[in-house]
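For concreteness, we quote verbatim a single protein encoded this way:
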Amino acid sequence: MSDRLGVTPAQTVGPYLSIGLHWPDGPYVVPEGTPGAFWIRGRIVDGTGEPVVDALVESWQADPDGRFDHPDDPRGARPPRLAGFRGFGRSETDEQGCYRLLTVRPGPLPDPDGGTEAPHLTLSVLGRGLLHRLVTRLYLPDEQAANAVDPVLSGLEADRRDTLLASAAPDGYRFDIHLQGDRETVFFAV
């Protein structure tokens, strides 16, 4: 018997993003030049504030009318009126832990209880040491009235809500994702 211990699967968990998840035009939820398009840029950091350089951010959002071209939309699937809008984006982080997505403002959504959800993007984070994706939301800071009555935001403790609010940037918005620590982003069990 060998004196060497083998590496367990938990120690070799990827991410193996380059094997099957690399998508060159993934950051483009809409084509460049789309009227009203803006960038969402951010950085993913671990609990010590170090950049996570091998992560992937996926976005899912409603179109500007607040609709999905998906059978799970309770109002029925409807193709977007905005040419080139696909509602989904994917961005790998770079050597500084940064990601980017080119998109448009989503419309508000009906919630299951008859209210309205504020315009938002759902973001999933996949990366090293994560056996399951982390899911969060990004809310826009200039939707103050809608954010104030959003059932998800209002259901959080007041001091945690700001972890889901993007900040204005010259070419759109900035949204940093903190995996752990004092500024840990709120993640949802879905």
The CA atoms of residues 85 and 137 lie 19 Å apart. The radius of gyration is 18 Å.
